[in-house]
């Protein structure tokens, strides 16, 4: 007997409608919100390669042929354990990590996951481990913090901000969990199922604790120990202006503006060699000298934005006595210098002259400035003999000047132990611009 669709209770047209509705629903599930891009296309592994717990800087430094060979090995193993299943990206609990072929800087990431008991997973940010995902009911992992839940920056140092999630927000097994991850510089905020679990914490460099994490790198979906399913993986890249706003929005309580954006009220020194342009203090071309606040500060944090011309050179005067050279007669000059100064000018510099360095005393990490012409966000914290410099969300210097015994060119710094002084700028003839200058006494 011929079997018709009617014998099972549905007309052919209804089946077509249901099938079409299913396709539409699947397509809708993979449609990113406005401004976001889907990292998983809902069909295959296009846009993903294999990856591992491997320093992305060293990966990029590999010769092209070695990198291609490594990619081929990792990707072959990844593809053996990952598959597209409808609108879900599924891993069986084994194999290398699904790693984006594209690198990202500052971003907002949305992703949903569903896993099983005893599974262990995570999300690597710019190739650095990791936003933790695990079974928070597994007694064997309680010693490692599993009972506190998922979402923490598990590879941060014990006791460091972000190491453990602020609240337990995991859903029961069988339900989908939702992450929202915001990353600017090395600063990471994580929401799990709508609850804030990491608040603007610094992601430590697992591969080299002496330097910040890379400026750019891939997203990696790590997995081991049990099946995990991912869906709705969407990413939005964050531009300079928004990144600076995000950095400025955190920890702003207590900061007070010391520049009104119009004139040099409250400032002293060589103000005739500077001018106000569009709300910023700018050193006049071919001019220089020091400008500084009339008020003095002991321990404080300073926040500001700066913009450099090619080869631009200036500095932040820290605990400046009001006369002499801030680099030597003050506690220090926190250098403000184009990261590509040597290429721009042809002049060789000592590492202790690079941007963010305590000039002539301690070198800062390089390579964290925004492109020339864009505004950089910087925060400098001075506490006793210690100074910390955070540039665009990366801590590039964290040192105690009391420990400095060797000086560039053997030049002593008689003012480095000053307990207080003025804050200002040490002009070097270049039109470097500063704006949104706020200070907070500690």
Notes on the structure:
With 442 residues, the chain is mainly β. It has two domains: 27-238, Jelly Rolls; 245-441, Exo-inulinase, domain 1 (Jelly Rolls, Sandwich), CATH 2.60.120.560. Helix content is 13%, strand content 36%. The strands form four sheets. Strands 1, 3, 4, 6, 9, 10, 11 and 13 form an eight-stranded antiparallel β-sheet that branches. It is elongated, with a radius of gyration of 26 Å.
Question: In summary, what is this structure?
Answer:
The chain has 442 residues and is mainly β.
**Strand runs, count:** 26
At the first level of CATH, what is the class of the largest domain? Mainly Beta
Largest sheet: 8 strands, antiparallel
Distance between the termini: 88 Å
Strand content: 35-45%
CATH homology superfamily of the largest domain: Exo-inulinase, domain 1
Rg (C-alpha, Å): 26 Å
Which residues sit in consecutive blocks of at least 5 with pLDDT less than 50? 1-29
How large is the count of helical segments? 6
Overall number of domains: 2
CATH architecture of the largest domain: Sandwich
Specify the helix fraction band: 10-25%
Overall pLDDT level: 92
Globally, the shape reads elongated
Task: List the SSEs and their pairings.
Layout: H1 12-29, E1 37-38, E2 48-51, H2 56-61, H3 64-79, E3 82-85, E4 88-91, E5 97-100, E6 107-115, E7 120-125, E8 128-134, E9 177-184, E10 187-192, E11 195-202, E12 219-224, E13 228-237, H4 240-249, E14 256-257, E15 267-269, E16 274-277, E17 280-283, E18 288-297, E19 300-307, E20 313-320, H5 326-329, E21 332-337, H6 341-345, E22 376-383, E23 386-391, E24 394-400, E25 421-428, E26 433-441
